[in-house]
Amino acid sequence: MINRKQQPHITDPIHLPLQLPAAETFTLSNGVQVYAVKAGAQEVVQLELVFDAGNWYEQKNIVAASTNFLLKNGTRHKTAFQLNEQVEMYGAYLNRACYFERASVSLHSLSKFLPQLLPLLVEVLSESVFPEEEIHIYRQNMQQRLSVNLKKPDFVANRLIDAYVFGEQHPYGKYSHLSDYDALTRNEILQFFQQYYQNGQCTVFIAGNLPNNIEALLNHSIGQLPLNGTALVKPEYSIQPAAQKKYFVLNDDNGVQAAIRLALPFPNRHHPDFLKAQLLNTVLGGYFGSRLMSNIREDKGYTYGIHSYIQAFQQQSVWMVSTEAGRQVSEAAIEETYKEMLKLQQQPIDEAELSLVKNFLIGTLLGDIDGPFHIIERWKNYVLNNMPMNYFDITVQNIKSTTAEELQQLAKKYLNPENFYELQVV
Amino acid sequence: MIEFNRFVLENGLRVLVHEDNSTPMAVVNVLYDVGARDENPEKTGFAHLFEHLMFGGSKNIPDYDEPLQRAGGENNAYTTEDVTNYYCQLPAKNIETAFWLESDRMLSLAFSKKSLEVQRKVVCEEFKEHYINKPYGDMWHKMRALAYQVHPYRWLTIGKELSHIEQVQLDEVKAFFFKHYRPVNAILVVAGNVTTEQVKQLAEKWFGDIPMGEKYVRHLPAEPTQTAPRSLEVTADVPLHAIMKTWHMAGRLEQGYYVADLITEILGGGSSSRLYQTLVKEQQLFSDIQCYQLGSIDPGLVTIQGKLVKGVTMQQAEAGINAVIQQIVEQPVSETELTKIKNRTESVIVFEDMALMNRAGSLAYYELLGNAQLMNEELSRFQAVTTADLQQGAAAIFNPNNVNTLYYYSQHL
């Protein structure tokens, strides 16, 4: 007879070998640094070009994001349609994304088509023309999209909370208005493109089943672009947090739920508390078995989900608690969240819970570095944030060695309800 | 090509093993042959609520998540109109914990009153978050009820209304469990750094003594052929007018399914697709437009939906859609365009198969469809579709009597 009451023997994941596979690196003839992970059984490749072209560098709201979005919308030789059709003819995906400091252009394709796709990528990065008509359509559609999003309490809450923490003038805190799209001009986009893409600062990350001549392929394409010439001067912005801490915004009279955001300004990745705080955050609201989920979802049923996370930005991070809770119980959900923070201050986390969280985190890391795309994602994160190249090992070591006392000290230092910005949007 | 081995336990549990020793992880995936289509029309949302209860403790194990997390694992589950699927991923070394957990909740749930009370509330909040407190959140509720008159696809997996979920009783939960959650109605897939021998031994050990149960045979009413177009007008507190049109299509195992899927790719797949290029870029009737099919096992729906550019009337927008449809019905698709969508489809399949979790889930799903080997034949089925098939398929789907239209007006315009 088997004993169904007893968990089978496990190896504590903290004792399993855990190593991040290395990334190869080389420099193209124009000085662009490439990080490459050659792995995986599938014949696919992911290529990402990261530029210093986030909204940090724009003179006027939404210029960076608009330039990035419109990169696919026409070159000197091809209309937007022709460009997209060619990419899609190879079953490939050409995507772009804009963040605070960085913006990226990425390509996913079957490995066999990479040589045909690289010239298209080069064309986009050197000869985009941003036709007036494309800007007009973009403006109209983005304004419509924004007007729909403004009806969503979670969207409104996400914008406002960042503005409270960083100030509306700061790249982390500013957000788009309908009028920004009216004010957008082609000239601003062209200038931004020339400075930050055509002649910009770029780093390349590539992963998957790479052809043997990958270095030559990249050199003959991306390596020919006038990138990484003069170093950029990064503008400085000061953070201007709001004085008021508590907010209630009525967005829709008939709303049945409140979007709740609690936010605490928190140091960036280089601060000595950062890694241990990740562990404390996991206990608080970082996984399904967290204190917040156990109490507010699994015991009280106030919400479908409640999560906490540290949004790690370069200048300063923010520690956030986020949930959508029934309108009648939203105050109670906030109260319970603060109670859980105070509990972490008052009592050390017991051994069973701490070892569970450590095992869970290590197990997750093990799964997270499975496959080339996940591996390159780690390296990208370390490279772009100037982390030491053994940061993965440091992270693992840190999970293993952190004690309950250290976490209690951290909770006392950071998880003070009165220091959190508190927002409800109905 | 995804390799796998298959065997069946005496109690009818089907087991598939996909060995991949390039990863330190393992995935255990349990699929139950029950979805929202198997619900009583007066008690909709039940299958999904039940999925939540599967985490509320089983006969011998008070908490599912805790021991799994201790073993370094994570898990989740989803319910669709057709199936309920549970999956966890953990270091392969600790795989026995997953067998222990999954077998105990297949043996019997704890049927805790508290869990039912809490999860009723949690699911109601889920309902509000995704379908009530969101602009356009009720479009599919209305469309399903319009397009299906007898088949249970006429309600959404989340349920028709909150009251159905609020009223669920514990004895109904028990009855549902012993009807559907039996080995004979389940498929177990184990993938990753494991061997078939090891899985055989563990499956026997943990699942072997669970009573077989009765094979559930479904007798769902087939949706009769639609003989006249249907439409519904709605006015809501949204900033823009929207339109949604659906057409009945073939079931998952028919050749017509592959044809319909490729048609939706031609019309709505990517930025060079016909609807996007014609109606968003050239005519600027829509600020966004999508075309897709539901992927359901019983005959599903081809769907086109979009939001109108301010100032465009519903009649203009609909005429725009109709012209694009007329073109695909009347003129053959070029070989180049067909090659493009086939390449896209190949790429989607290859990228999907990268993740171990997806490979395990797909094997379970195709086994449910009748044969896990189908997973490896998907691409060739798409590749066999010709331009003539597409034209014929388009004519059948876009028959004017086969359409359902939801006109969703903004009260502010």
From TrEMBL, chain A:
InterPro entries: Metalloenz_LuxS/M16, MPP/UQCRC_Complex, Pept_M16_N, Peptidase_M16_C. Residues 41-161 form the Peptidase M16 N-terminal domain. Residues 184-359 form the Peptidase M16 C-terminal domain. GO terms for molecular function: metal ion binding. This is Putative Zn-dependent peptidase. It comes from Hydrotalea sandarakina. The lineage of its organism: Bacteria, Pseudomonadati, Bacteroidota, Chitinophagia, Chitinophagales.
From TrEMBL, chain B:
Pfam families: Peptidase_M16, Peptidase_M16_C. This is Putative Zn-dependent peptidase. GO terms for molecular function: metal ion binding; metallopeptidase activity. The keyword Protease applies. GO terms for biological process: proteolysis. The lineage of its organism: Bacteria, Pseudomonadati, Bacteroidota, Chitinophagia, Chitinophagales. InterPro entries: Metalloenz_LuxS/M16, Pept_M16_N, Peptidase_M16, Peptidase_M16_C. Residues 168-344 form the Peptidase M16 C-terminal domain. Keywords: Hydrolase, Metalloprotease, Protease, Zinc. Residues 14-129 form the Peptidase M16 N-terminal domain. Signal peptide: none annotated. It comes from Hydrotalea sandarakina. Belongs to the peptidase M16 family. The keyword Zinc applies.
